[in-house]
Structures are given as C-alpha cells and as structure tokens.
## 1
Amino acid sequence: MATTPTKTIAFIHGLWMHRTSWQAWMDFFEQNGYKTVALSWPGDSDTIAASRSNPTPIGNRGVKEIADHLEQQIKALPEKPILIGHSFGGLLTQILLGRGVAVAGVAIDPAPIKGVWQLPFSALRASFGILGNPFNINKAVSLSFDQFRFGFANAVPEQEARELYEKWPIPAPARPLFQAAMATFIGSETKVNTNNTMRGPLLITGGEKDHIAPPIFGQASLAKYNKSVVTEYHEFENRGHSLILDSGWKEVAQYSLDWLKGKGF
C-alpha cells in the first residue's frame, strides 16, 4: 500500500530577523496539515534576546556560507521540504531550490538574484546606512527605528511599526548586502541556477509598497527563469517588507498555502 509523503515546510528568515519570527506561520501551516521547521543562519543564537546581547557570531557571514549552512540542515530532514523564505531568505530559497534540495519554493519579497541590475531609489536609501560604510562588511549591524520604519514598516501605522521594532529585529551580517549590491559587477554568491529544469515550482511575491525589496526585484528575477518550469509572481497591494510579521501576515500565508495546494503540495 502506497504511503502519502509527509508535507514538510522549512522556513528561512532574512536579514535582521530570527528564525522565531516564523512561529505564527508555522502554527498556521501545521493547522493545515504540514510539518514545519525554522532553519537557522550560521551564528544565530537560540533566542532574539541572545542574538541582540551577543551579535559577534552573526557577523562576517556571506551568502554562500549561509546557503551551505541551510543546505546541511535541509539534508538532515527526513525528506526534501518545501521552502518558504522572506527577503534574503527568499533569495536563499531560490538558491537552494536551484540546487535541487527542495521540492518547491515560495520567495516572499526576495533580495535580488545575480543578474537583476535594477536598483530603485527606495532600495538604495533603505540600505545606504549599511552600505555607506565599507567597514561594515565584516560586522553584524543593527537597524535604528527610523531605518526599520523606512525599510520594513513603512506600510503600517507608526504604533504598529514601533511594536514590531521592539519585538523582532536582531543584528545581521552586512556582508550579504554588499554581495547583492555588487553582484552585477563582481561575485557570484547571489547567483541562482535559473536554468535547472528539474527543480520544483516557485512562487515569487512582491509588496507594492516594499522599500527595501521593491516589486521590480521579484519581477526582474522572474524574467530570468527558464519558462519550462512553473515560476509565478504575485504582488500584494499596499504591503511593505514587514508583510510576514505585521497584522496582515495571514493574507500572505493564506495565499502561499493556496498556491502550494494548487500545485499539489
């Protein structure tokens, strides 16, 4: 008698976030019949408080090191998972899906893959506080409230933005930002195997009001993919980069769930 494969979803956080930021999503998907796990980046502490109090281990981590660390965790799972990632986690989702270690992917407001050269002013402004100082490249950097408000929480009321800021951000390695910013000219760490016709389906999303990863990043990434494999794009109206955390998170989770079910997962 054939057995039904287990549905496992592995969540990948982005810069300035901790894996526990996915807890509401994990509960939601588990209520809908999936098994879930939140993957860690190298240097992550067990808690947000610990990551804030000692950010040194987080610093000086590049995209390839992070992707390799995630892949080791994925290969320790009992089956190939579905990947859901946000921001740089969305870029890493695409890298890992291209490596063939997952069955499907959802990249939510992802950082740009290599070959996406568009750089809207909002994205430049959101990152300039870090990229403007080349000495940051080896460090773990924190966001001020104003930086978080502009980059993440520009589409929610200020009170909610302050609550999100108090609860979620941790220091993050600056190196991936530098690697993404320079990918058009040098380096290949943000390169995705967009021609892998054996990979699973991919959903890329954008938030209409996202400043740090504006919709053009996802749209331009979509255009790079081999059209023989399911690769789709969806844009959420009036949503910023905090869309997986703020009071409207369930809209994004429900769309992701419906899309996965529509693809047979």
Note: The radius of gyration is 17 Å.
## 2
Amino acid sequence: MNILVQPVIMAGGSGTRLWPLSRAGYPKQFLVLSGDPANQRSLFQQAVARLRGLATEGITVAGPVIVGNEEHRFLVLDQLHALRVEPAAALLEPVGRNTAPAVTLAALAALEDGRDPVLVVTPADQTVTDEAAFSAALQRAVSVADGGAIAILGIAPDAPETGYGYIRVDASATDPAPPVVQFVEKPDLATAQRYVADGGYFWNAGMFVLKASVWMAALERFRPDIAAATRKAWAARSNDAKFVRPGQAEFAAVPSESVDYAVMEQCPGSEFEIRMVALNAGWNDLGAWEAVWQVAPKDGFGNASVGDVIVKDSTNTLVHATSRLVSTVGLDNVIVIETPDAVMVASRERSQDVKLIVNHLGAEQRNEHTVHRKVHRPWGWYDSIDNGPRHQVKRIMVKPGASLSLQMHHHRAEHWIVVSGTAEVTNGDKVILLAENQSTYIPLGQTHRLANPGKVPLEIIEVQSGSYLGEDDIVRFEDTYGRS
C-alpha cells in the first residue's frame, strides 16, 4: 500500500530574536546562518529538502504546500526554484492568525481534490544534523498517522531548557510511539530540572504528522469557530498561478490560535489518539543567537564565526560579519552581529532579549527592524549605498528576463549608469538599449521602466535627486508582479 505524504512548511514569522540579520522583510527562515552563503541553503530550503527525503518504498512525497506571508511570496518561489522544486501551492496569509488557521488552510487545500494525504507539518526555521535519523523518525510518524492517529515529534532533553514546551508520555509504554499523556507549558528552571530527572518528558519540536481529515475532525471537535471561519476564508480564496490567497476580510475574522492550544493539548484522553515519535537527529529551532552559537562549528576556544572575522584572545563568542571586517579582542560569551546598517552586541545569556531592541526600533518608527539596506524584490534587489537630504544612490540588480514596473515619480529625477549587462530602458515614448558604461537620465514626472533583456544579471547605479526620495513616491501603471 502506498502512502501519499503532503509536506506542509510553515514559513511565516519575523524571527525578531535574530535581529539584525533577521528582519520582517527578510526573516530568518530565508537566511543562510552558517558557512558560505553562496554554497549553503537557507533554513527554509533545508526544510524543503529534508521532507523530500521522506520518499521511500511505500511513501510518495508530493510537492510542498508553503504557508507564508504575502510579502514573502517571491522569496518563497525564488528559493524553491533554486532547489528545482515545484510547490503544490503557496498559501498566502493576508494577516497572521497563528498556526492553527495556517494548518487548516493547508488541510483544506490537501482535501480539495478528493484525496486525504498524510500531512507532515514542520516550521521552516529549524536545523538537524543527522538527516538519515530525521527521515527514519518521520517515516515512523507517517506510519502512525496512516493508521488514523496523530504523531508528534519529541526531542529527548539534554538540559533543563526553559524555552521549550514539553510533552509527557507514558514512560512505561514499550511502543516506539508511546501515547502522549500531557502537554506542559514552558517551565521554570526548577520544574525543567525535575522533568529531566524524572524522564518521560520531551521537548515539543513543533512538528506533527496526521491525515488532513483527522486535523479537520479534531479542529471541528475542539475549535469549531476556527474551523468555520477558516472554511469561509478558503471559500472566498483567489488563485494566481501557484499563489492561493484566502479571502482577506474573512481570514482577518478567523480567531488567532496556535496548533498546540487549539488541538494538540486537547487530544490526550479524547477520542483522538495522539502518540509521540522520538527524534534524535541533532535538532535545534534556532530561536535566538545563543542557539545559532550552539550548532555552529567552533575553534578550540569555543568561538564561532561567519564572514570576514578576526578573533583574538576570546572565548565562547559568536561573530557574524556580513559586509566588512569585524575583529574582537578579549571577549567571553558575547555575540556580535554586523550588517551594513546595524551592529548588535549582546551577552550570550541575554540573546533572547534582542527583541527588546526590535521593539524599541518599532516604537520609534525606524525601519531597521523591518528591512535591510539591501532590499529584495521579485525582479532582483536594490542596495541603498548612500543618501543625503536631496539625494540617494542605489546599486540595483535585475534578473535576466525581469523588469521593474512601468512607473513615474512626482518628486525625484533619476540617473542610471550600467555597470554590467544590458539594460532596456523605457523613457517616456522612447525605448533604448544601454550597454556597460552607458547612462541615461529620467526627468521628474517621466514615465519609465527598467528591464533586463539579456541572459546575465543586469547591474546599474541609480542616482536619485529631488525633494522627497521615499519608496512610496511610485505611481505604477503596469507591473508583471501584480503590484500596480
């Protein structure tokens, strides 16, 4: 008998505790957090690749369903394209309503064609070091779920961790997937120490496996309000190629609740059988910089580094350099994160509190907590390399075959200089081609467009001048990406 598995990857969230590298516009799940970014995969790509590895005799793995934010839709497609993976669907939440409605959207999508696959639901921001052990544990969970039960993944604790919820199982059971007795909240230190000493307690990894119909039945049983409201949003959905958008007003009315509170914690002792499969695969959820240090390769003094870094007479320190040389002397248990527009220094013990900085930036309405200096767009990216009261200089990359929108600005003029590649420029009623070292001028108020007709990336330098240089001074007339 063949089991159809539908991977569901939860790719929402902003990862504020990994600021300044992770920001709302480009959150941690899409980042490469270790090694050479040119040769490594993002956390999201790692999650996709791991679930593809579940395929074996008797298990067929469908294309993944991605549940994420509207603003990250092109990041999702670009990173899947790099893996040569075709998604079953990208479900775009107009607003965040927590994980229970998100999983419900995925279940409704999976049931749409009359099938009832086994959903393997995982966050997009975790790491494992033993992929063979990961696949073996998930395959066991798939077998449990195919029998009608809910399987949840648990991690044997190696320390009294207070940052995770715990799963208590029947310690006397000899079954490799013992029944779950209870879910318990994040404990204080003394309670966590008792859990580790007693045994039978596991960290909740936030991964679970069950049939789509079982999820819907359990949700109808425990939270019929969420089920009904999400069904209404699903009925009002719109489709745009692989993008599926639930009705905006209807989804905003869905009660916000987590998977654990809505369903999982209600299952022990109910008609819904729930079992735990132990996962021993070097798992980490990378919830804060301390966790990144824990999983990173280290030198003989416990130091981990990424980028152009020099570390002298320092111990147990993490240094992550993005755009320049970062050097340290005489540090112990410190985290240093450098980006082009922000540097964060913290003690490892306080790494969870980086969110205090993010909250402060938000309260002051500064944009460093939401976007990087280098901003990714569906056509490529731009990097704001210099600015002043009446000027801004950007480095712009346009992907082969891509184009910006046909647009105009009320308050600024622009000069474009081609650095590499070929530019097709619409400037008013003229269309011209520019090669390397050639330039053009776009007057204020002129309708214009930049496109790359070539097969290599186009890079230009854009110099803006005018009384107002904000990104909202754009009037779009036509747009390939549906933004006009």
Note: The longest helix spans residues 131-146.
## 3
Amino acid sequence: MIAFLLLGALALVGAVVTVAARNAVHAALGLVGTLLSVAGLFASLSASFLAAVQVIVYAGAILVLFLFVIMLLNAHQPVTGRDPVPFVRELAGIGGVILAGALAVIAFSYRDPQPLAQGTAALRGGTAGAVGETLLTRFLLPFEAVSVLLLVAIVGAVALVRRPAPQPDGVTDAEGVALPGELPERTAPEGGVRA
C-alpha cells in the first residue's frame, strides 16, 4: 500500500510538472517521471508485461521521439509572449472542468460489468500471450488506429521542421518571397550602364 501511494504521488507530481513547465524539455522529463511511476504501479499490481511495455515503449521510444521533435523545432526555450490562439487558456479551463465532471459522473455511476474472479481468470495473470491475443484480436482496430496516429504525428513533425531551400538575395515575388533561380535586377549608378 505504501508503494502504491508513493508511486501514485510521484505520477501526479510528474503530471503537474508536465503541464506546468514552461520549458518543453522540463515538461518531457516530467512526463518521463509520470510514465516510470505508472510502470511501477503496473509492477506493484503484478502486471509485469505491462510494466515492461510501459518502460520500453512509452518511457523509452515515445519520449525519445518527443525529445527529437523538441530539439528539431527548437522548442527547448521557455515560452514567452502572448498565446497565438486567443482565449486558449479559458477554453482549456472550461474543457478541464467538463472533463472532470464527466469523469466524476463515470466514477459514481460505474458498475462492474462482470464478477472480479471472472475478469481475473480472463486476464490469465497478465502474461504477454493473454495481452497480445486480446490486443491483436478483439482490439485490433484501435491498435492500428494508434499506430496510424503516431505515423501522422511523425510526418507532421517532419513537415514542421522542413526548412525552405536557400534563395538568391534580393529577388522576391509579389508576396515578398524570394524566387528560386532568378537574379535580382541591379541598377547602375547615375550616368552608368545597367547590368
């Protein structure tokens, strides 16, 4: 019980750091703490496979991906200035209150869908075979949807960091964007010949 309370408190502290940190790297480190604490919670519940997957996939691979995106976007500097989206904090607060209310309704109206002994027997001790069989048969569509979502996130990160090719100095189109392959028109000094 002490381990559960300690790991739960660490997970909450990491979550608060993740949300409240102004530096993106500090937020990612808070997320690492949360994910490792959740892995510890899984281990304390004798779900060793889920604990290992939590550490390897989320605290390892996904966090490395997040850190690469942070570094590629040069987002490791603190956030300053005003928000680019107006009223984003107010909307986030309203969304948070609605989410908390929905979770409270779910928590107080929850009924166990099957007896605990039957659910425990269906898990077969939380072994890799039982989890894999359930994941790749009954939950195949959500599993593949998550993989497509991660792929879209990677493509979006690459699109965000793509830098335009260097352009010749001084040549712009109607919108002020440099045109590739054109040289600027030069004017000669007074009385001279234009090049």
Note: The chain has seven helices and no strands.
## 4
Amino acid sequence: MELFDRQKDAVGQGERTLLVYVELPSTRNIHNAKSEFKELAESSGLDIVDIIQVNRNSALAQYYIGTGKVDEIAQMVKELELDLVIFSPELSPSQERNLEKTLECQVMDRTGLILDIFALRASSFEGKLQVELAQLRHLSTRLVRGWTHLERQKGGIGLRGPGETQLETDKRLIAVRIKNITKRLDKVHKQRDLGRKSRTKNELPMIALAGYTNAGKSTLFNTLTDAEVYAHDQLFATLDATIRRVILPASGEAVIADTVGFIQDLPHDLVDAFKSTLEETKRSNVLLHVVDSADEYNVEKIDQVEEIIEQIGAGEIPSILVMNKIDCLENFAPRLDRDESGRIYRVWISSKTGEGIDLLYQALAEQLSGMMTRARIELDVMSAYIRSEIHNVGYIHNEKVDDFGQWILEINVTHHYLSKLLNKKGVKLLWEQSPK
C-alpha cells in the first residue's frame, strides 16, 4: 500500500544517529533515564554517534527545546552527516515537523523508537498485529509531518473522492487498516480466551512472569519449562506472550506465562495494543515479579513495574519478588525472605546458573497450596497405569506396593484433578488432607 511505503516512522539499521536527552524537573530523580534511553537506541541497531543532554524547566511549543540548542544540533547534523535525531521526551506532531524542517533530517522521539524496537522483535502473528496497531495509532497523529505532497488536491478512481486531499486519503486508509487489524486481533483474542477457559475448567494454577525489560524473565521461563524462548541481554528481547505447561516439584501441573517486559513511561498505544498479552498477568494465581538484583536502580524499577501492574488491574494478585542474576553479585548465596506473617515474599536466585531454583519451587508450592490437596490413594493391579498420568499432572511424595500388588500413593494434585481421579475404576481414596 502506497501509504505505508511512505511511512517514515521505521528506522534503518546502522543509521548515524544523534540522541538528545532532555532533562526536566520531573525526570531529575530518575537516575538511570539517560543510560536507558541510550540502551534503547543501541538495541535497535542504530549507529549512535553522540548523545547530548539539554536541561530545561519546561517544554517550548515550537521545538520543545530552545532555538539556540536547535541551531547547535543542526550544525552537528551537517558536520557529522547524521541521518537521524532522536529526542527522549514525547514530541508533538508539530514539534517533530518543525525539527525535521530545521535539522533537515529525520526526527523521532522515544515513543517512536520503542515502537520501532517492538516492530523489529515481534515474531508471532498476534505480536505483529499488536505492534502494527500501535504504530498506526501513533502515525495517525503525525501525517502532516514534512511531506509536501499531502496538501495536493488529487482525485483517484476507487481511492479518493472528488477533491479529497492526500492527507484525507492517508487518514482514511489508516482508519480502514486499524479497523481490519482490530477485527483480526479480536479473533485471536477469542482463541486465547478459549485456552484460558480450558485452563480455568481444569483448575490449573496459572503463574505469570512480569518485570522490567531485561530482568531475565525469558531465561527464568526457559529454566522452569525447558523451553527455548529467545532470551538475550537487550531491552525487549521478548514481545510475544508464551505459555507452557510445567510440572512443579511439590505442586504438580501448572501453567507459566512469559510476558512483555515493562519500561518507564511505556507508550499508552503499546499498553492498549498489548492488553490481551497482559491479560495473562491479570488472570494469574501467582505473579513472579522478576528483578535484576545486580541493577543499582532496581528499587526504582520495582516501583515502576508495580505501578503498571496496578494500571492493568493485577495489583491484588499474590506476588513473589524474584531477585534474579545473583551470579552477578559477589559472594551472594540464594535465599528466601519471609514477611512478619511468615509468607515468602522474596527469593534470591540465578536463572542462568540454576542457583536457588529449588527455593523458588518451595515458594510457589506454598503460594499455590490453596489450590492443591494432599491425598493417599490406592490403585488396584489393573489401574497401575494411572501412576504415569499422576506423574504428568501432579506430584507423588511417596509410593509403595502392598502385599496384594496394589499401589499406595501419597500425592499432591489440584482438587479438580483428584475428583476426576476418584471417578476412575480401580482408584480408592484412603485419606485427603488439604494444606492450610
């Protein structure tokens, strides 16, 4: 489609780029904002030539920053032969257009950069649709930027009405595309809802991984599930929600969901577009909030993630802080931390080396105990095959064969599975004790 060939939001790999970090009173207390801005740009594959800082008490209408600083940047663009200038604050469409005209190169803000990174990383059908939807919503406010042909009166058979401007056509095409993507996403969401209903029906415990981007969620997911989800030391390495069934020691079968990482000031268009992905977080029984324990600014990032968790309606879900990457700390051993009531609220682990994973299993077993029941059952000789099924969906604490060749099993399973199990021929309940 002609419109999307003209779209200027996407950046090319290796473009010579200048970063302009604007510090306002509201951002001065965020210690890692500048370094994170640079890391974002680097993770998109750009060639970062330089980064400059501009201090302001407030934004100006024309360029956001002062005209003197704009002239200075324009001189740098010429001397360094730059292709792109990226600003850390969110620019209005008019500010972006004014800056492009003065600097004579492409200009984008941090929101556009994050959208571009998402476009690079999305791999699933749903993820690509979600990213395109967010990009189109962002683009729809910026159609007037720097394109001289947009104001030409131009008719077109089957494309434009009489006297319709190119700008009006672009807006109409974007509106149609947004409508089509929304319909396709609705179908995907209905399929996802069917999967959720199936898990709910089977009373499978749901565990969601959440946390700041690059905290190690995907590495932990791979460790817990033996999956091969893409994990890399970069921002937004994972965008597509991945769900796997897993057998947890002392807990049995559960479902674990890996979700998109959060970041400070995550663009609203992205939060809206990824609502279905974030639903896995909202509907979970336990939330594992994964934190980079070696990050000196992790306290601030914990607060930012908890704020987003509240925004998506998941603030009431029981959570465990998983302090990851202890292998990056000097002489630090894995451990559990309990609150005043004795509940495990924090676990120190390394998902890379596997240190402390047993402690995380213990924390999950305690947290999920309300969904589980412990029972002793008897299987007759003809029903011994059920042992393998129990191994797949629950946890067997101990087992023995009596003098009559019958299996006596002490198991940990969900209430729902136990009721189904007892309906099978050759299965007898000896005792049941639900954990307190």
Note: The two ends are 61 Å apart (CA to CA).
